[in-house]
Amino acid sequence: MSHVIEARGLTKKYGDLTAVDGIDFSIRAGECYGFLGPNGAGKTSTVKMIHCFAPVTAGELRVFGLDVREHPREIKTRIGVCQQEDTLDPDFSVHKNLLVFARYFGIAAREAEIRAQELLEFMGLWERRKDGIRQLSGGLKRRLVIARALINRPDLLILDEPTTGLDPQSRHQVWDRVRSLRKQGKTILLTTHYMDEAQTLCDRLVIMDHGKILIEGPPADLVRSRVGKDVIEIWGYPPALVERARQNGWNFETDSDRLFIYTDAGDEVFSAIHGQYPMERCTVRTAGLEDLFLKLTGRELRE
Amino acid sequence: MRSLVGNISLRSLRVWQRNRDVYFVTWKTNLVPPLLEPILYLLAFGAGIGALVKEVRYEGAPIGYTAFIAPGLLATQVMFQSFFENTYNTFVRMYYQRTFDAIVTTPLTLEDVMAGELLWGASKGTIGCTIMMAAISAFGLIRYPEALVIVPFSFLAGLFFAGLALCFTGLVPQIDVFNFPIFLFVMPMFLFSGTFFPLEVLPVWAQRLAWALPLTHVTRVMREACLGRLPADLGWDLLYIVLATAPVNLLGIHLMRKRLVK
What we know:
The complex is a heterodimer. Chain A is α/β, with parallel strands linked by helices. Chain A contains 11 helices and 14 strands.
């Protein structure tokens, strides 16, 4: 078995709406693989098919080499899922949440105790083990959901927007734990709409929009090949500059008040235009995933 | 249908255990109502209405009014406990707490989860009924050991109401809409199933209608058992409940699957 997940022509339709539109991808053992895309891109639908909840409309999907249609119980025994919404049991303590979840996997009580302690310590929740769920902050809840997703020692961990709605500190704590899991060799599937998250955590990623995969690869390679090394960002740009960019064949884009020029020779282009045109501000910076993402999915507002 | 039944396994007991554990966390609020409710009813009906109606004729023989209604209270307790468990409480777990979303990521199927919910709903009927029996026994209104059949029987009756409840949970758009099935099914059964007055006083057409209600059969079994008799024709009442229980339970699971799996 070479791949943990293999999808060919994977399609999900809800009535007339095509949420996932014939995508192909494969995830290798030990890598952190990202699904990056705006809301409604089809990330969560893909995740739901992987954990065998949403029926596959068309195409093929194998997890651990097993068809999701034929072997849902076997697959689900070996994966851990951290969902977007808070699905913790509010009537149980932090500790009890893990023990009850262990029971669903048929883990014996004594073994569950051992694993719960291990995971609570790993996620920095041991001191809070007796607390009720309602006493936890959003960040602690999310860490508990991740701990819960690890109770069956999964071969594949699925994190569906693990840091959405968290404050910056909590996000960094979650990232730190995810990186540590990655170092342990855990295969991780991560969905996110945060560029920085995808960039820091993912070995490889896809960018999805409208149910389709737009691009796939390691984040740094994608940025370099599709955007370039640098971005020059000009606020309050004059029309003449856009005209010049077009004439020079520069790779550029505009929004309401900014002009972006993507290039491998940022300093050169910068000195060629800086001071030559009236503008509010002009900076050069290293291109990031955000530039690639916006380039691919456009800048218009999404619902 | 085959896949629905095929997707139910013993793992459904894990869901039953989860609900039981929550029940024990919140046991103080769970225990008090079934213990105190019959005392209130027996006081109101026994001392209040019972002062006007000393006795009623049931199956040709006179019987004290409080002794008459006591089994009716047990039957309605099973109905209320099981029906409310798999309507309001299941809805809260499904929609507000998203409990099922988490459980279906484990080796359990959605059918396992629903089967566990139904078994728990039935158990709530048995627990409520048993606690109430203990309270009513203090008034000397129940004959033992015959009445002990009520305990396993309350589980079967509970399973019927649990299944009926799950059908509505699969259908209601919002939690407030449960008012309709309660007003249309539960309250008429509560009042017209031979619980508070003998059906013989009704016109024949109304009696026939009453015998179509499941709770009428549940009440009859409980009343006979409380009076210390177990006539053979209780088999018909039992058969009615068994035949009604299987389809509502399967339909309930089917409707929940339709609701949740898109």
